[in-house]
C-alpha cells in the first residue's frame, strides 16, 4: 500500500466568504474536517450559525438590490461566467487533488468532475445569451410576451459526493440568470468549495454576488432555509433532509428544487449485450465509490441469463481496484467519513442475512485503516429486503432475478425512490414501452449515465421535487412575468353606463 498523500499548501483553517471578504464565524466557532484515509483532523472550518447566514444573506441582498449583476446584459454576465470556466479548467489538477484528498474520490474521477464543473458554467453562460422567451399574438387585437426576471438571493445547499461539480451545477444557472447566491457546502467536504471565492474574484464577479457559509446542516443549512430574504432553495442530498427542508421552507412559500436519494434499477433482459451490460452496471454502482444518487444499485436480471450474469459480474467486481484516492490506478477509493463508512458496513452485515454474498463483504485486504470498502455484491435478494429497498450510498449492489417484463417492471417500481433507471435490451419496442412505464425521472436505454445538460434532471416519489438542467434551471431561477398589450381600440365590456 502506497503512503498517504497529503497535498502541499493545505490551509489550516477555512473561513466563510461574505460580501467579498474572508471572515470567521461571528461567535468564533469552528468544526473539525477529517481526511478519509487517515480519519485525522487536517483543518478546522468556520462553523456558520444563524447570525453568519444573516450576514451573508444581507450582503447578497445588497448586491441584488443595488449592485450591477442583475442589471447586466446577458452577454456581460456570460463573459464573466466563461472566465470562471476557463479558471476552473486551468486549475483542474489542483482542484482534483484537493477534491480527492477531502472526499476520498479516486483522482482520475475527481479530474473528470473538475472538467464537468467548467462545462456547467459554459453551458449556462451560452444558454442565457441564446434563450428566447414566449410571445403570443392575436392578430390586430393583442400581443402577449414574457419577461424573465432574476428572483433574488438563491440558497444553494450541496452534498459531499462530487462536491465541486455539484456546486457548479447550481452556481452556473443561479448566477447566469442574474441572482445572487449563498452557498452552504456539506460539512464533510468543505475544501474545494473554499476555492470558489478566488475563482470568482479573478473572473470579475461583482462583490457580494457570491457568498459562502460553512457549517453543519442543522445549523447553517437550516438558517438558510428559514431565512425570510431567501426566496429560493436548491438542495441536493438525502430524502429525509429534503422532507425537513420542505417543512421549514413552507411558512415562507419558497421556491424549492430538491434532488434527493435514489435506489435506481438496472434491468438486464436476456437479449441484452451481456458484456456491455456488465461493464456499465459495474461502473454504474462502483464509480464515485458508490456514493452517487443515480447509482444502479439494484440489478434485475432475466432468469435465462441470471446465473451467467451473477458469475461474471461477481468475478469482475472482485477485480475492481481498491486503492489510495491519489493513485491513478485506483477505481474505488475511501468512503468520505467514518460515520458514513460505519453506515455502509452495517448495511453489508444486514445484506449477509438477506442475500448470497458473491463478492466483497467488508474491508479489503491490505487496508487496515481508512474508510475502505471492497466492492460488495449480493445475489438472490428478495424485493422486501432492506438492502433492496434502502439507499446504501456505497460500493454495494444487489442482484435479483425476474421472469417476465411485467415482473421486471413491478420490481423496478417497488421502492419509495424514483430517480433513475437503466434498461438493457436489443428489443426496440420493449425498450421504449418499458421506459415509459418506469416511475423514474430519468431512464437510460443501453447506456451508462451519460448526461446531456439540456435535458431535465430530477426524480419522482421520494427522489425529489422539480427538475434542473437546461431551460428547467432557467425557469427555476427566474420569475416569468406575462405582459399583455392591446392593439387598436380597447376591447372592454362596459359597466356603469346604463342602457
Key descriptive features of the protein:
single chain; 499 residues; alpha/beta; seven-stranded mixed sheet; six-stranded mixed sheet; 15 helices; 38% helix
Kindly describe this structure.
- With 499 residues, the protein is α/β, with parallel strands linked by helices.
- It has 15 helices and 21 strands.
- The protein has helices at residues 50-66, 74-90, 92-103, 107-130, 163-176, 196-203, 217-226, 239-249, 274-286, 303-319, 338-354, 386-389, 405-413, 428-437, 470-476; strands at 13-14, 16-18, 21-23, 30-34, 41-46, 135-138, 142-150, 153-157, 180-184, 210-212, 232-236, 255-259, 265-268, 298-302, 356-359, 376-379, 396-402, 420-424, 442-445, 464-465, 478-486.
- The strands form 5 sheets. It has a 7-stranded mixed β-sheet, sandwiched between helices. Strands 10-9-8-11-12-20 form a 6-stranded mixed β-sheet, with helices on both faces.
- Strand 11 (232-236), helix 8 and strand 12 form a beta-alpha-beta unit.
- Helix 2 crosses helix 6 (196-203) and helix 4 packs parallel to helix 5.
- The longest helix has 24 residues, at 107-130.
- Spans where pLDDT lies below 50 across 5 or more residues: none
End-to-end separation = 96 Å
Beta content: 15-25%
Kindly state the number of beta strands: 21
Secondary-structure content class: alpha/beta
Task: Categorize the overall geometry.
Answer: globular
Question: What is the CA-based Rg, rounded?
Answer: 24 Å
**Strand arrangement, major sheet:** 15-16-17-14-13-18-19
Report on the biggest sheet. 7 strands, mixed
Helix percent reads: 25-40%
Query: How confident is the prediction overall: mean pLDDT?
Result: 97
Total helices: the number is 15
